[in-house]
Amino acid sequence: MTYRVLAINPGSTSTKIAVFDDEKELFSKTLRHDPEELNQFGGLLEQYDFRKGLVLEAMRENNVEPETLQAVVGRGGLVKPVEGGTYKVTENMLKDLKDPCIWGRIHASNLGAFIAQSISDSFNIPAYIVDPVTVDEFNDIARISGIPEIQRQSLFHALNIRYSARKLSEMLKIDFNKANMIAVHMGGGISVGAIDQGRVVDVNNALLGMGPFSPQRAGALPIGDLLELAFSGKYTKKELTDYLTKTAGWMAYLNTDSGIVVSEEVEKGNEKFKAVRDAMCYQVAKEIGACATVLKGKVDAIFLTGGLAYGEGIVEEIKNRVSFIAPVHVLPGENEMEALSQGGIRVLKGLEEAKEY
User: Fold this and answer.
1) Binned average pLDDT, 10 residues per bin, the chain of 357 residues
2) What are the start-end ranges of the E strands in 13-108?
């Protein structure tokens, strides 16, 4: 039997959708939303019914009737920490996604579960989320930071990393649940994680924490200098947070976060661009080395994914430093819609059970 699944990935001013029959994509589309139109709803989560209507309209325009769906999968938002997998959308989940106190904010991805549940109610099909950014499979030792007031947290590109690890396991003909890998997602932010028998047991906080700098984010910084900057009076807390998470890294040094632009400048012989690009690759490689120690050197494979993995120069710089650890594989792209749909399809096919939140 072929299973048809709708995947929904909401952003602040857009909603990405795709419909898959098993692994075959029928269509995908990015629905753009006018910010002024969204403002009329008051809050972010109040937009779900409006976005749902646009999703169903887009499906019909692409000759896919909603009544033919077997499931709907939304992007997992800022739920409480969970282990990886596919989760049924429940009232407890929706309640937590409404609560800004859990993570200090409500993210646009939180809408995914609400839109999915509304479509589920309309067509009597199951609604799921898959591998939210809050997937937490840390070993206890990985949580200890150095001071009791701070605990290391698991916030990373879980959706693409876990899906890419599954794909690579199939390619290498090894059991995902027995695989030891080092995963690197490189986009606006960078996640480098140690996968021990299918579980991401350690990873840098890809939003505002340790790890390499990226096109937009600062990564790990010298604590003393950061304290000086924080108390300099130059920035408010919000301004400094925005700087460290949105306009640091390549943006601060090069005034661009585009891998294409950086690669073009390097090809032209721009030494500044090459130095900053190579420094990022150097830090990524160091983080890969750290993950190798987490796995005690028992590494089946290293893989590079995300948008920056299309950059041949970036890939080669990293490979040159880490290929002695394990074979390096490249699976470029975000793969979010495919990852969402296949999470639902694995459950429908009985390959794994949907988890309770």
Assistant:
1) 96 95 96 90 91 96 96 95 97 94 88 96 97 95 96 94 97 97 97 98 91 96 97 96 96 98 98 98 98 98 97 98 98 95 97 95
2) 14-21, 24-32, 71-75, 86-88
Q: Characterize the bridge pairing of strands 180-186 and 190-196.
A: antiparallel
Interatomic CA distance for residues 129 and 79, integer angstroms = 10
Tell me how far apart the alpha carbons of residues 192 and 325 are, in angstroms, rounded to a whole number. 15
Alpha-carbon distance of 311 to 288, in angstroms, equals 18
Q: Between 271-294 and 312-322, two packed helices, what is the crossing angle to 10 degrees?
A: 40
Q: Could you say which DSSP state residue 85 is in? A: S
- Find out if CATH 3.30.420.40 is the number for domain 140-326: yes
| Residue 227 DSSP class | H
DSSP alpha helix (H) spans, 191-236: 223-230
| 3-state SS, residue 147 | coil
Whether the CB-CB separation of 87 and 346 falls below 8 Å is answered with no
Domain residue ranges in the chain: 4-134+343-348, 140-326
Nearest to 301 by CA among 186, 156, 191, 194: 194
Domain 4-134+343-348: what homologous superfamily? ATPase, nucleotide binding domain (3.30.420.40)
Neighbours of 53 (CB within 10 A): 12
Would you say the CATH fold of 140-326 matches that of 4-134+343-348?
Answer: yes
